[in-house]
Design brief:
two-stranded antiparallel sheet; 2% strand; mainly alpha; 73% helix; 8 helices
Length: 217
């Protein structure tokens, strides 16, 4: 059987670095920006529903800003995809990563000096950019911002290995466990560093993406 060619930035190292960034990003906005998520929009919908149900209308604006800016981020990268088709995927993906890095640097400069609505919106823009562009890993569907599907796949793959001796399932389980671990490490890193770096801890995400551009193609 002919071996499938893995596309640019679709290897396990790339995926692990991307989900680590997502872990940094969502933990950052949750701690630094008042209990919202930049990428986990399901979480924002849950929080918004809870707050409305409790009559806490003043705090729903930030979650709504994140939702709207996330949609804008998807639209921006979709337009980029129109102009950079699959043949230019490397350039397109590097542009997306560079776009995210610029946003992270800007947020690190303005954090604490502007409304958290602005920083939340910018980071939601970055999260959406990543989700829209990086959608495959090793020729399979990939979602860098959420771990729910990965936990399901991990459980399924481990069972397939135990019940059927499927070695491919075991390998897949190893890949998925790596992604889940990377996401956790990203959240852990930010949770630790934000105590000392405060708003500038978002630069950790920028550094991870720079490593992705340079070494993880």
């Amino acid at each position: 059987m002919e071996k499938q060619v893995i596309g640019p930035y679709e290897r396990l190292l790339s995926g692990a670095l991307l989900v680590m960034t997502a872990g940094v990003l969502d933990s950052y906005t949750y701690i630094q920006d008042g209990g919202v998520f930049a990428g986990l929009q399901t979480g924002n919908l849950i929080l918004t529903g809870l707050r409305i149900g409790r009559g806490d209308y003043g705090s729903i604006v930030q979650a709504l800003v994140s939702l709207v800016m996330f949609a804008v981020g998807v639209a921006i990268i979709r337009v980029v995809q129109y102009h950079y088709p699959s043949e230019r995927a490397v350039t397109r993906k590097r542009l997306t990563l560079s776009f995210e890095i610029v946003i992270f640097v800007v947020v690190s400069v303005i954090a604490g000096h502007v409304s958290i609505l602005l920083t939340t919106g910018l980071l939601a823009l970055a999260a959406a950019s990543q989700l829209q562009e990086f959608r495959r890993l090793k020729n399979t569907p990939f979602t860098p911002l959420m771990m729910t599907g990965n936990v399901r796949t991990l459980s399924e793959s481990l069972l397939d290995f135990v019940a059927q001796g499927d070695m491919q399932a075991l390998k897949k389980a190893g890949d998925i466990a790596t992604l889940i671990g990377a996401f956790f490490v990203g959240a852990l890193l930010n949770g630790y560093l934000i105590q000392y770096l405060h708003g500038q801890s978002i630069l950790v995400a920028a550094l991870i993406l720079l490593i992705t551009i340079l070494y993880a193609k």
